[in-house]
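In response to a reviewer's request, we include the raw inputs and outputs for one of the modeled complexes. The two entities were modeled together in a single run.
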Amino acid sequence: GENVEQHPSTLSVQEGDSAVIKCTYSDSASNYFPWYKQELGKGPQLIIDIRSNVGEKKDQRIAVTLNKTAKHFSLHITETQPEDSAVYFCAASRAGGGSQGNLIFGKGTKLSVKP
Amino acid sequence: DGGITQSPKYLFRKEGQNVTLSCEQNLNHDAMYWYRQDPGQGLRLIYYSQIVNDFQKGDIAEGYSVSREKKESFPLTVTSAQKNPTAFYLCASGGRNQPQHFGDGTRLSIL
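The model returned the following structure tokens for the whole complex.
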């Protein structure tokens, strides 16, 4: 089955700097890759996602890149702000019946943005 | 507003007691999911349901039970057989190979 590894587990940056979180996946058939942000005491919120037919997607200060050959994808946050501090999760899934369409999550990255 | 509602926000369980966590969605999603989150851990899948009156075990189903009698509702029962129930429980809805939308969770503790 699919396995998603995420690193680093913790990341501390200065306000205004960029932050990069990387994930690797094992199942070459995976074709959907969402990223979630979880604030303390709340549920994860979808912030951006990408499908395998594109290599990059941007939404204001957030971007995701996908390298299908190397089976890894990354979240890039530019001009970080204190409100970006949270835990970020990557996930992967593939088309198919049964459990194949379920999301497999990484273990999360705790991002701290220092003012 | 459309979304997923989990209740209660906090729940306490006594020894030998079963407790039920509620999850309701008005997003008209076919699929619903229950995850367990422990400190510093990712999300582990307990049960999922892709259609009414059908559900499947996830990776850590032992000690838990679910029902899916209505499209909007997917309650989770933590039974007395679950020996380590203290965790943050998250419900989500969505579609196969599609985004999932999460509720704000229920924190379960042992008395």
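As requested, we also summarize the result in words. Chain B is about 0% helix and 50% strand. Chain B touches chain A through 24 residues (CB under 8 Å).
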